[in-house]
Amino acid sequence: MNSKSLKFLEDLCNSPGPSGFEKEPIALMKKYVAKYADSVYGDKMGNLFYDKVGQKDGPVILIPGHIDEIGFIITGVNAMGYLSFHQLGGWFDQVLLGQRVKVMSKKRLVPGLIACKPPHVMDAEERKKVVTKDKMFIDIGAANKDEVEAMGVRIGDAVVPESTFYSMRKKAFKEGKANGERTLCFGKAFDNRISAFLTAEVIRTLKEERIEHPNRVVGAATVQEEVGARGAKTAAKATMPDVAIVVDVDVAGDVPGIEPQQAQAKMGEGLAITTFDALMIPNQPLKELVIETCQKHKIPYQLATTAGGGTDGAPIHVSNVGVPSIAIGVPTRHIHSHVGVFDLADLENTLRLLIELVKVLDRRTVDALITI
Which CATH superfamily is domain 71-156 in? Predict the structure, then answer.
């Protein structure tokens, strides 16, 4: 990936766009990918599509990555000017207190802070309990409702974490020996801006490297995945894919307290191939093709399961009369929090795999995915 691509990734991750409020990252994506795609278009749900035609009568290969991030929505303003909120997507209560946020008001981004009653005025029993989201509020520095209104903040405004993308290059060690260098990236919205980014990079790479492919590739930046994969439902209808390769993050299991069978993939050890999740079992011939492609091209990979979640693949694989589908992901630490971490090598290897798959998915190969 070149420096221009990485700068786009940074801008994309920094942009505010929780479920239902994806306008800004969609606009960034549209501007970036337009120079590489044969066509760019959308649907009434707000999804963005960009395609590259290799063979007009070839199969349609859909590569979606959802572009929404988790966030919040304002549900009330009390007399003292504090804001109540509800989550957009899943948040763990314990990661919220003391975190800085931005309210997406109609006028501007308004800085704020998630807070609760101070522990100094809690009794001993209260201090022992986890403070839940319904006991928290957002402080934007207002003293009453009038000041909140003057700031342009109102019920129904979205809220996103305040967290800026940055990267760090460091020496790597394995089994006590030096093992080159690694570049780690830190920031918000990695679930799933890094995958939406990859869908655009596929189109860019096909264009710039003049790669021949026996199909029509459709990249998609889908909306509202974090609230029920809603954009994926209309994306499948809009594109009528023959195959779907869903790109998402995978929970990195190299974190204290995680048992190996709970999250198998480790950050920096290769992309994750999801062999099972709570909402989709992948097409088995497609899974084997993905594994064989990794092995043939020496692309590091890990087999993973996700018993407690799903991806855009859930509605796509049962759409129309069924779509052979699989999910692959970039192992990422601390997803669904203000700051995630991933290894840039895993991102680059995921792009390598996507390009190699696009090159081999001709009509005959796609037809062979259906075993009946």
Answer: Peptidase M42, domain 2 (2.40.30.40)
